[in-house]
Model the fold of this input.
Amino acid sequence: MSNFRVSCHLITWGEDLITGLKEAKELGYHACETFTHIALRYEDRVDEFRELLSQHGFVLSALYGGGRFTDSSRRQEVIDYNTRVAQFLAKNGSDRIVFGPQGPREPSGTPLADLKVAAETINEAAKRCAEFGVKACVHPHLGTEIQNERELDVIMELTNPDYVFFCPDTAHLAKAGMNPTDIIRRYRERIAYVHLKDVTPDEVDAEKFPILSGNEALPIFCELGLGTLDLVPVIECLKEIGYEGWVTVEIDQSTSTPRQSLAICRDYVVGRLGLSLETAAV
Done:
């Protein structure tokens, strides 16, 4: 077993936080990331939120922040919002915020000039988060201003490594044409959070993966182990670089029920990847 701490994203349950906590607990998870707008409903009732997590035996691994980094006119708005999220995280004993970029995306990609603007905003917002002991982790995302390898490399080069860290998402990296293990090795010193995600195959083997067959419109992402990504090399790479932080299981949309989807992910994480859910409770 490794020292990784496994978290479960409650995105699969949509707006139903309570059912998500209840069913994720039944599946053996002990940590979660949830929709930030749901968490911030408790912004003035932090004790109530902490008690809710405690009742279900959970700790909060992170929240998703970010914004439209390339728009200089929105810089202060982005800084203020992420500072607000960082404050909430710190009050709940969490020290990671995911910096997710926004769309729409230029068809030809994000110009260097815009990436320079984004880097300035990310630097300033991350520095403010650091004042609360929270590490800001840039998360390349499909369909946004930071999606491909060129854009990621520019942002990482132009941002301050003392404040700006990296959240590789295995599926988003792969779908954008990157090799997750290569990227993880490249930015090994700056990885502070990880999203484990699989990509739905273009053609589904109904006999091998019946849960995916018969769906008229399959989501881009699917349960771990049912898609095109082999996550074993990813975990081995994380071990190789000495990563000991959170790895968060994430599936945006269930192909059956959230509980069943996260059960499949759990079995893959424990049985195939050799990780333990129990370390999150320590």
